[in-house]
Amino acid sequence: MSDASVNDTVIQTEGLRKVYHMGQTEVHALRGVDITVTRGEMIAVMGASGSGKSTLMNILGCLDTPTSGTYHLDGVRVDGLSRDQLADVRNQKIGFVFQGFNLLARTSALENVELPLLYDRQRRFKNTKEQAAWALEQVGLGDRTDHHPSELSGGQQQRVAIARALVTQPSLLLADEPTGNLDHRTSIEVMALFQELNDQGITILLVTHEHDIAGYHRRIIEVRDGHILRDHPVAECRIARSYLEQLDAEEPVGAL
Amino acid sequence: MTPMNLVRIAGQSILKNKMRALLTMLGIIIGVGAVIVMVAVGLGARGQIRESIQSLGSNMIIIMPGAATTGGVNMGAGSFSRLTVEDSEKIAREATLITGVSPVINSMAQVIGNGTNWRALINGVSTDYEVIRDWPTSSGTWFTESDVRGIRRVAVLGTTVAENLFPGQEAVGQRLQIRNVPFDVIGVLAPKGQSAGGQDQDDRILIPYTTANTRLSGRSFIGQIVASAATEGELPVAQEEIREILRESHEVQPGQDDFTVRDQTDLAAAASSSTETMGMLLAAIASISLLVGGIGIMNIMLVSVTERTREIGIRMAIGARGKDVLTQFLVESVVMSLLGGLIGLALGVGGATVLGNLMGWSTEVSPITVAVAIGFSAAVGVFFGFYPARKAAALNPIDALRYE
């Protein structure tokens, strides 16, 4: 691997395999996956349940380790790291966005966003509150810092979660079905936010089973039975912002 | 995670479940509270015992007649009284290390006065008895050296006797009869209360030993001689001096003493060993109640870990190490047990004060008790919080995130 590719490559996996042992039977969740993701890409990972895409996301997110194969994240080999080292990698290099938002209840938006910074052993950000406020500003919730999750709509909660993923300025933003719990319009709004962040140069990998949502990405990776079935660029990437404007034009009364 | 953040997170999570936290802490609260109250009462009792020992007279030396051997048969202590008034007078003349000496001639007698009667202990003593027992009069005066020499029939009454014979009246100046011998009451002693053995020390009449010897019993042997040393440190030397004087007077060799000389240290040692036993008992009760309280905390912490599996998963996903999660739950259980300990302490101190006032007991809350109570409740938090915390820290982030 050349130096240039280290700088530009965020994810590089070779022959990723994952085998689960369920009693006597072996379940092959991944059967040799090679993925290369370059900085600034926005990729949708698609697949039916049981296809292995969740396992892939867990390994790419350093929540799990592969049975075999190599995984370089940001030029650093991360397969085979210890639990604590993986925790540090997650803290420094990865931002997670989940389907169920996964915010801490009875904790303000600002404190939710601040949380990853409190686990930062390198103390990269001296003023954690200021950094958290900046991240909330990025997702358009600069005026909701003191609200608790229960006081926010689903779309707003997901924005807080995105701010929490952004706050450490990670190399990679991993989103697992981020629009799964949201209505159509809010889903598009969240996609518009992801596209804006991507325009700023953030690398995004998003898992979805909705073709509609996948259409907002520039590249789609389809997974089936632990293999990559197809890995193709999207010819005509949809722009969420313009679709929202179109929606507003069609039904101005229904606007939020 | 800074320590301040950890304590704040622990506080928040306790506040989220106020009722549950309170019930969890109840074990510790009751345990610590009960211990504080019991120790306060125990220490108060010990203080009272110490006081009552001191009320016998500080630095007092007691000389008792020893065992007599008659034809090779040991008759036991006090069997053959060979202490005499002359012994007491010889000690008074020759001993240099004592501040006072007095024979004590004991007898029980029916006392008649003011148209009523009462049975009391009659002590024939010298004027030094006032100093030896540290026992001044509350009204009237003690008899004097000339009263003793003149074998006068004067009496100083204990308060119990005075109250029973002359209720509501001034006893000084009255007359009474002891075994039909008339006496003038010249003083009433200050009350001394119960002795360590539970006897009413005020139920007695003091008269000059000369009078007791000649007018009442006619005995020439006396029950005991009491003396007092100037300081506690001089007690052993003073006792040895008394022994030598008595050996000379009784014409016996060392090792054949027909008397015993003792001081109060034995009594004090006995009393302190009984309070030590009580202390051990209290410690045992304390450890049991803290154990029960600790199990309560462990139980709730285990429930809490299960309930918050998802939260643990979130924290791990965003970069918390196992150790961070462990510390978080450990701090939470310590904060909870410490809080319980503090509430228990406050209730215990309040309870001890109220109990002391209601029952008229003297209670004493020592700083050591407080420190031990707080220290123990924190230790309980660490000990019983560790297992649930370790369970939380060992969770797999993926499973924890998926937990519904």
Task: Lay out the secondary structure.
The complex is a heterodimer of chains A (256) and B (404).
Chain A: H1 3-8, E1 9-22, E2 25-38, E3 42-46, H2 53-60, E4 68-73, E5 76-77, H3 83-93, E6 94-97, H4 109-118, H5 128-138, H6 154-166, E7 172-176, H7 184-199, E8 203-207, H8 211-214, E9 219-224, E10 227-233, H9 240-250
Chain B: H1 3-16, H2 18-55, E1 60-65, E2 69-70, E3 73-74, H3 85-94, E4 98-113, E5 116-125, H4 129-132, E6 137-140, H5 145-149, E7 154-157, H6 159-165, E8 175-178, E9 181-189, E10 204-208, H7 209-217, E11 224-229, H8 235-250, E12 259-263, H9 265-307, H10 309-317, H11 322-359, H12 367-393, H13 397-402
Parallel strand pairs in B: 5-10, 7-9
Antiparallel strand pairs in B: 1-11, 1-12, 2-3, 4-5, 4-8, 4-11, 6-9, 7-10, 8-9
Helix pairs in contact in B: 1-11, 2-9, 2-11, 2-12, 3-8, 9-11, 9-12, 11-12
In words, what does this structure look like?
- The complex is a heterodimer of chains A (256) and B (404).
- Helix content of chain A is 35%, strand content 27%.
- Chain A is α/β, with parallel strands linked by helices.
- In chain A, the strands form two sheets. Chain A has a six-stranded mixed sheet with strand order 6-7-8-3-9-10.
- Chain A is globular.
- Chain B has 404 residues and is an alpha+beta fold.
- Chain B has helices spanning 3-16, 18-55, 85-94, 129-132, 145-149, 159-165, 209-217, 235-250, 265-307, 309-317, 322-359, 367-393, 397-402, and strands spanning 60-65, 69-70, 73-74, 98-113, 116-125, 137-140, 154-157, 175-178, 181-189, 204-208, 224-229, 259-263.
- In chain B, the strands form two sheets. A six-stranded mixed barrel of chain B has the order 4-5-10-7-9-8. A two-stranded antiparallel ribbon of chain B has the order 2-3.
- The two termini of chain B are 27 Å apart.
